[in-house]
């Protein structure tokens, strides 16, 4: 059984090495702005089934926000924070 499992891992590793970044990424990037509330961000994550987004302002990247940031804000009761 360990042999079969070892072969699966090896095949998975092989597929991972063959995968190009462009095949795993999307060109239609979901972004938020610094004015986006954490409640809005939570909904974006839920609907889009993603774990974070770039934060942009005037077309420029100003940061990255993740589900971990959302969890911290929920714990502190700051769901209306931007």
List keywords for this structure.
elongated; 16% strand; alpha+beta; single chain; 82 residues; two-stranded antiparallel sheet
In short:
The chain has 82 residues and is α+β, with helices and mostly antiparallel strands.
Describe this structure in words.
With 82 residues, the chain is of the alpha+beta class. It is built from four helices and two strands; from the N terminus they run αααββα. Strands 1-2 form a two-stranded antiparallel ribbon. α3 (38-48) crosses α4 (67-76). The longest helix has 17 residues, at 2-18.
| Poorly predicted runs of 5 or more residues | none
> Topology as H/E string?
HHHEEH
User: Biggest sheet: strands, sense, closure?
Assistant: 2 strands, antiparallel
Judged by helices, strands and strand pairing, the structural class is alpha+beta
What's the helix and strand layout?
Layout: H1 2-18, H2 21-24, H3 38-48, E1 52-57, E2 60-66, H4 67-76
Antiparallel strand pairs: 1-2
Helix pairs in contact: 3-4
């Amino acid at each position: 059984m360990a042999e079969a499992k070892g072969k699966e891992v090896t095949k998975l590793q092989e597929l991972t090495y063959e995968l190009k970044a462009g095949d795993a990424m999307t060109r239609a990037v979901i972004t938020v702005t610094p004015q986006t509330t954490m409640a809005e961000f939570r909904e974006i994550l839920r609907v889009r089934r993603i774990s974070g987004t770039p934060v942009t302002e005037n077309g420029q990247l100003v940061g990255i926000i993740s589900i971990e940031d959302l969890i911290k804000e929920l714990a502190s009761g700051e769901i209306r924070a931007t």
